[in-house]
What we know:
The chain is α/β, with parallel strands linked by helices. Helix content is 32%, strand content 21%. The chain is globular.
Amino acid sequence: MRLRNKKWAQPWLEEHADLVINQQKATDLKGDWHSVFPVDQPIQIEIGTGKGQFIIGMAQKYPEINFIGMEIQEAAVAVAGRKADEFPEELPNLKFIYGDGAGVDTYFEKGEVSKIFLNFSDPWPKTRHESRRLTYKSFLEGYKAILPEGGELEFKTDNRGLFEYSLYSFNQFGITFVPDGISLNLHDDEEKMIDNVETEYEHKFSEQGFPIYKFVGKFN
C-alpha cells in the first residue's frame, strides 16, 4: 500500500542522509557497509521496510546485529527514518536505504548480509504481475547473490495465496526450510511468539483474527 506524499519527506531525507542512505551512496558502499556502523558485526536487512516498526524493534532487541531497512517509497522511508531518529533509545546499529529491493545485489557483496527479512510484501495477485513479487525467481537470485552459503531468508505474510506461491518458488529455487521453519498460524504458537517482532500490518491483521504465515529457510 502506497503512502500519500509528504511535503516534509524530501528535505528531511536530505538532512538525515547519514541515517537514510540514497541509492547512489548505497551502491558506493558495496563491500564497505561496516564503515557506516560504529561496531563491525553481522548485517541483516529487511526489504520493504514500510514505516519501520519491525526493523526498529529488531535493532532495539538485538544490539549485537547491524540492521538495514530498504524501502522504495519516499514517504514510507522518511516516516521510518524519522521514527528511528526520534526513538527514545539510541539505535547506532540501524540504517535505511532509500532504494529498490530488485537491485539488492548492486548494494551488497556476496556474504556481506547474513539474513534477509521479507514482511507483508505486496502480493501482486494478478498473474501478469508475478515478476513483481518479492519471492519471484529473479528476486531470489538477487538474495542468493548477497547471502553466504546457508544464509537465511525469513518471510511473513497474511496472504495465503502469496504464501503458497512463495513456498513453491522457494522449493523450485532450492531453498530449504529450517527445522520447524513453517508456521500456518504464527500467533497461535506461544513458543514462536516469544521472540517475534511484529510489523504494523502483522499487528493489524492478527488483531482482526487473520492467520499469519511464516517461512524461514536457507540458501544452499
